[in-house]
Amino acid sequence: MGRVIAVGEGGRPQAPVRDDRFGDVLGLVVARNLLGRPLLTPQCRDFDHADEIRRALYRSAKYYCSCGHSSCTRRYRNYPAGGQPGGCPHGGQRISARADVVKDADGRYYVQVTFRDKTAAMQAIVDKYGPDPDNWPYNPWARRIRKDD
Ligand SMILES: [Zn+2]
User: Fold this and answer.
1) How far does the centroid of ligand 1 lie from the alpha carbon of residue 94, in Å?
2) Whole-number Cα distances in Å, 25 to 2, 4, 11, 60, 81
3) 20 C-alpha to ligand 1 centroid (Å)
4) Contact 62, 72 (CB under 8 A)
């Protein structure tokens, strides 16, 4: 029997939980100080391809820590929880991504992505909206808080 692939929405193979195929790209982005700059991927085959790249970029950022330990973001959350202080114990940098599929005038698809330092991004929100997540336009912990209640 071959490899079993879970089927997700629309009958397509379900995306793997972990995806860090762009981990090396993130390493370069950090090393070359390209955080905060919009970057454009090479041309994608079509919209679906671009959309897959977009999601992979998000996931790669989610699992990336500059300390280089592949399990760091799984073992150590970005924020304090469960008696742990949160963040990388090795002083590594965590990254957030904003990625959009874009199309040029000739109908060619690309992904435009901006990576940011996660701590700085969070600090910017706190500076603007205050420390209470209830006052933020988007509360990333809302679902977790509801579930724990
Ligand atoms: Zn780390």
Assistant:
1) 8
2) 32, 29, 30, 9, 29
3) 14
4) no
Ligand 1 centroid – CA 132 distance (Å)? 26
Domain that holds residue 44: 9-117
Question: 6 C-alpha to center of ligand 1: Å?
Answer: 30
The pLDDT tens digits for 83-138 are 777 789 998 999 999 999 999 999 999 999 999 998 787 778 888 888 787 887 76
Distance between Cα 47 and ligand 1 center (Å): 33
User: Domain for residue 1, yes or no?
Assistant: no
Structurally, how many domains does the chain consist of? 1
